[in-house]
Amino acid sequence: MRLGVLGLVAVGAIVGGCGSQPAVQTVSKADAAMKVQQAKQAKAAAAAKVKANELGQVPVLMYHRIVKNPGSDDDRTPEKFRADLERLVRDGYVPITAAEYVTGKIGIPAGKHPVVLTFDDSSPSQLALDDLGVPRADTAVAILQDVAAKNPGFRPVATFYVTRDMFGKSLKEEQAQTLLWLKDNGFDIGNHTRDHVNLGTRSQKEVAEQIAAIRQQVHALASQDPVTLALPYGSQPRKKEWALRGKGSEGAYNHSGVFLAGYTPAPAPYTRTFDPLGIPRIKAMDKKGDCSQFCSTAWLDWLKNNPDMRFTSDGDAETVAFPKFKAPFLRKNFTGRALPY
Predict the structure, then answer these.
(1) CB atoms < 10 A from the CB of 242, how many?
(2) Rounded Cα distance, 124 and 102, in Å
(3) What is the DSSP string of 290-319?
(4) pLDDT tens digit string along 35-80?
């Protein structure tokens, strides 16, 4: 009888031991879930503290030549370009590339605002290297690097939209040297078509040839494919999709975003209003004429006076933070990164 009792006790112990294991696992999973929830709540609280709004608008500034004697309204003097950058510093902006913007890889400090600096036509005034491989004074890159050095946290990055006349260089070796310098220093190389033609008047084949030629040239010289394209004159092909992807005699191209020539700030890439086929840019210019409302100085003033409308980072590139009432504007493919507060 005693052995029977002991046997029952032993069986009970075994059954009890087996039965208790799931309970331990359940508690462990509950603890893990609670920790995840607490971490998310802490992130949401931090986002609320800096009034993060990653569904806000992003200024994409459009530059051409940076020259002492402007020949057109598209040109900017070195002094005015430096003043533009210094204003961006004061207003809490941090540069990101066009590639980072369209792919949603926006990693800037909490409370800061992204700005995309773009340069069309690959002019020597944007980048020219001396014999030691250093950007020459008063070029756009030299000025950007100088402002960044004096203002830690202000990233010296931009996107350069190139044509076949790459920064005034005709030799392939010189073109490769310039593109590789940009690549090695964190700059972004974009597509601006081979001959800077109006794509709105071209056939599908002509559009594909113009775009594919530059993709192939950049790939051959720098082992990199452009992520985005800037439309010459802001003119879209008869079918907008032709600019995004296609195939020419020199190979295929596949962009993640296509930029227009100007007009308004761009929507955040996480919003339903984001259209990769036609992303607006803002012409870099002071308040005068039409630019009293629709160029960089005017729009930066407007964003400063309407801070709830501009993109403000929560400091975490893996989340998309925003006030809860803005949830209907979130693109569905970003719901897994959503951090409403």
Answers:
(1) 21
(2) 27
(3) THHHHBHHHHHHHHHH-GGGB-B--S-TT-
(4) 989 999 999 999 999 999 999 999 999 999 999 999 999 999 999 9
Task: Give the H or E element holding residue 119.
Answer: strand 113-120
pLDDT for the residue numbered 13 = 43
**How high is the mean pLDDT in each 10-residue block of the chain (341 residues)?**
42 46 64 90 97 98 98 96 98 98 98 98 98 97 98 98 96 97 98 98 98 98 98 98 98 98 95 98 94 96 98 98 98 97 97
Strand 93-96 vs strand 60-63: parallel, antiparallel, or unpaired?
Answer: unpaired
Give CA–CA dist 80/327, Å, rounded: 39
C-alpha span between 190 and 24 (Å, rounded): 55
User: Alpha-carbon distance 40 to 148, whole Å?
Assistant: 33
Strand 251-254 relative to strand 245-248, pairing: antiparallel
Distance (Å, rounded) from C-alpha 24 to C-alpha 17? 11
Both tokens of residue 271?
A: 């919003």
- Residue 159 phi, psi (nearest 5): -120, 130
Task: Give the H/E segment covering residue 112.
Answer: none
268-314 per-position pLDDT tens digit: 999 999 999 999 999 999 999 989 999 999 999 999 999 999 999 99
**What gap in Å lies between CA 160 and CA 167, rounded to an integer?**
10
CA atoms within 13 A on the CB side of 132: 3
In this structure, which amino acid lies at residue 305?
A: N
Residues 6+ apart with CB under 8 A from 197: 206, 210, 232
Q: What is the pLDDT of residue 30?
A: 86
